[in-house]
Hints:
The chain has a single domain, classed as MFS general substrate transporter like domains (Growth Hormone, Chain: A). It is built from 18 helices and no strands. The chain has about 475 residues and is mainly α.
Amino acid sequence: MMVGRFRILKMIKRITVEPGMLFYYIGIYFLYSALQPLIYQRTCEDYVRSINSNQSCQAMHTWNDTNAVIKISKDASHWIRYTTICYSVPSLIVDILMGSWSDYFGRKLPMILPGIGQALAAIIYVLISEIVSMHTYWFCIASALSGLWGGPTATIAGMFSYITSDSTQETRTTRFSILQSMTYIAGVVSPFVAGAVLKATSYTAVFSISGGFFLLTSIYCALLKDPGQHKKKVENCCELFNPTHFVESIKTVVKKRDNRSQIILLIIAYLIVQIIKAGELDIMYLFLTDNLKFSVSEFSYFFGYKFGMATLAVLIFLPLAKHFKVPDDIICASGLLCKITALTMFGLSKNTTLAAISILFDGFGEWAVTSYEALLSKSVPENEIGKLLGIVSFTGDISLLLGAVIFNSLYPALKPFHAGGTYFVACGGLAVSLGLLALAQFLTRSKKKDDNPEKADPNLPAKTNNAAFSNLGYAD
């Protein structure tokens, strides 16, 4: 009994940025639960006004005009793509800057700013909800504003950098999985609550709650103790926007080191997974409403169920796998295979039952994301972690951009042939990511066979009893 209490107290003492991640992603999923439906509704209202019709967009699933529904779906898909582009482009630069700031000026600043930007964007969404005459391009303005302050990718990179400075290599994967699980817990709670709030009130209430959680995130992170060992005081704005930050970040990836090839391969493999993850979420609402006739509230519940399965997989089963010394590369490969299975089943779904079963596999597919992040974090010294994760968050924004463009282009193009065709294409991308992971492992093992163990590089992470993982060149 005392041992159990001791373990619980020990876990509580390790809590640092996890609540901040939870608050931020509650805000994100409140926003996500209302944003796509509002874009869809505004697109429908614009179409109805253009043809001087009295049809109700709330009952669009009962319309007999199939061509009209297809047009609205395509137009909504285009606006979703535009908003993603408007967020991603400015965020590309900000991500690299914030990653370098994390190494030079401490871990807190990159965690504080994104919440402020998202809160400002939420104010614009409230105005759009209340003022019907506001043009649809205001969605793009709000997205650009949040990107300029650093969005979800910058937040994740900042918080993972914080955890890296606050953990050992032996505990890092588990700490990462717990931190990552906060995003999924938020995904479980928020859509259900947001759906109920939206049904009972309005879009304005949902966006207001979202903005409140973003502000709460920034306040909480500002109160944390900075664990960074290389903190430097910011003297002026020129130091923040010095081009050196970009140069040093790029050097972190390309400079000569024994595991440079593996780092590059893992970043590319991670990018592919993130493109698919971003793209599938971008078209999920369209797929479920077009093919399974989901309502807005049903979509929210399904979205929550999806993240509930991810929470169980990452918060419970991944730490359990690490407890039994399962190597990160095996966990990552297992996650990729589960994701391929999930997307195949989901693409074939003709009813809610098969779609729900596919999510059971989809949850374990999230192992790939956490494992890739853990592998990358262990590949460089602590004073380069922020810069490397800044590059990783840069690829995350690239993935949002590419995911939106690719999936929102493929979905309307492939829908006449097979509604799930886009998901089948995604499975091919995941197979490529799996191949890159295997290649990284092969290169490392080949190099170890050629090297003399007595002359091993002392700067590499120390070996552990986990022989299979040590073959990858990382410690765990």
